[in-house]
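Researcher: Quick sanity check before group meeting.
Model: Go ahead. Protein one:
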Amino acid sequence: MSETLKALGVISRPSLEGIDLAIIETDGDGVVKAGPTMHAPHARDMKIFLSRAIKAAQEGREGAADIGRAAGEITSAFVIAIERFLEREKMKRTDIDVIGVGGHTIFSRAPASADAPGRRWQIGDGATIAEETRIDVVGQFHAGDIAAGGYGAPINGAYFRALIASMADRPQCAVGVIDLDETARVTYVPENASAGDLLAYDSGPGTSLLDAWTSYRTQKNDAPTGAVNEEALRMMGLHPYLRLPPPKSIDRYDFNIDHALKLSPEDGAATLMAFVADCIARAGTLFAAMAPGARR
């Protein structure tokens, strides 16, 4: 049996909301035991630092001082959040075997071809975090995956497979999982799946569209009830990404709200979320065709 480790995961959300922390015990294969979690909201200054770094990265200003400042600030924020989390849970550093640092993504482009391998740029210095916390740190998962020829999300599928395998009453069938975040990521886990049997990819945008819409139209964090505009929905469905076969991945900035700009706040919110649901439904159709017994 593989060794079971207690791992602390830490990531700064692309939405700039704050840092999420969670502890799990796992052997990396079929044992997953969830532990405590914590959310540490970003201060206003941190949101400004990160926003400036994202803008610089999107504009290709790789050596910009804004990026260096944000990298230092988010690294310190990670250390403070980890220390507060362990203190809250009355845990010692020796109780944690490893810290997994997701960092904060300031630029992401999926591979377009063998000649255009893609890039995921995440700030947050793992070496500094390891030195300050005196706990081993593993990081740059997404960037490492892209460098190895992947699409920048190597953990999701493996985690869901291990989670399903660890269920006492695990389903005796294939399972589809929806991970709705800034992007919507879907995972197909066949029954008794091995690591090579998984299919995981970004079906399309997730909450990022509604975040952008509410910032643009209402300055609120909730979605009012409205009607779906079918023409706007049809136009969004023509995005070339949706015609690409999986595996594939996107960045939260790859889709926008342009087709909803003339709609009311209520109808725009409803239409954008209908598009998110439509993208996920397309993945469901693909998964159904992959299930045992499905017609080919």
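Researcher: Fine. The other one?
Model: Protein two, sequence then structure:
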Amino acid sequence: MIRYISKRILIMIPVLLGISFLIFSIMSLTPGDPALNILGKDATPESLQLLREEMGLNENFLTRYAKYMINAFRGNFGISYTTKTPVFDEVFTRYPTTLKLSFFSVLFAVTLGIPIGIVSAIKRYSLADSFSMTGALLLTSIPSFWLGLMLMLQLSLKHGWLPSTGFDSWKHYIMPCITLGAADLAILLRITRSNMLEVIRQDYIRTAKAKGAGEVRLIFKHAFRNAMLPIVTTIGLTFGSMLSGAIVVESVFGIPGVGTMIINAIRAKDTPLVMASVLFFTVIIGLINLLVDILYAFIDPRVASRYRG
């Protein structure tokens, strides 16, 4: 197991290099001048040239990229162009907010999606199954920003039940978590239903039922455990997608997280801040995928034996 984890961590290094090169290239090729954004339109050419020289913007692309990556491997991700503070501090000040939003959104999707999917599989072709599958189709089709705006109009502006912006109390979590987790709830529901339908047709389920196993034991101990591998994979991918999808939700609800910071940094061409944020997201998503693979060993003994081998 330790050998496998070490290999996976080493594989992340070329992935980080590739993503960093891609993001740095995009930020360099997009129109705009960070020096002009900082000094304003009334700045003189001499002051602009001096600031570009100070920021290293006059050097060629490969030199700037190499210097940035060398400093990054040393733990120095640079200074933000706009806030003049270390990028490391900017990211870690805002990241707990994005992490909490993603975690509670996943919790919302898992808490509703998996039980409804199990019921839908057991009551196949019933009214509950038809209703849940129709709801899943609708939730998958609705864009998150539109759903967020509709929730704000109905629950905040019209009825005043929930606050529309901010992230200070538990009430501020409700609409953003529903908006962010709605589509993934539908995906989990459909994945759970399809896998449960496949498992409950197996011979060992019929054998356990013939031996007198209760319905609850049959569903959760025999059927659901063997259907969990694709569900766990989906949950891991869901959490990773929510971290990136939080950018839209944070913009809609005015949440001071990493997503809002990235959008503002892109507009200002704040390359160090964008690079650090994206690389941090990449590391977190890679670690989540690794954790999912490790969980396989605890769910399926066949996977555990392969790790030991």
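Researcher: One line on it for the slide.
Model: The chain has two domains: 2-73, 89-268.
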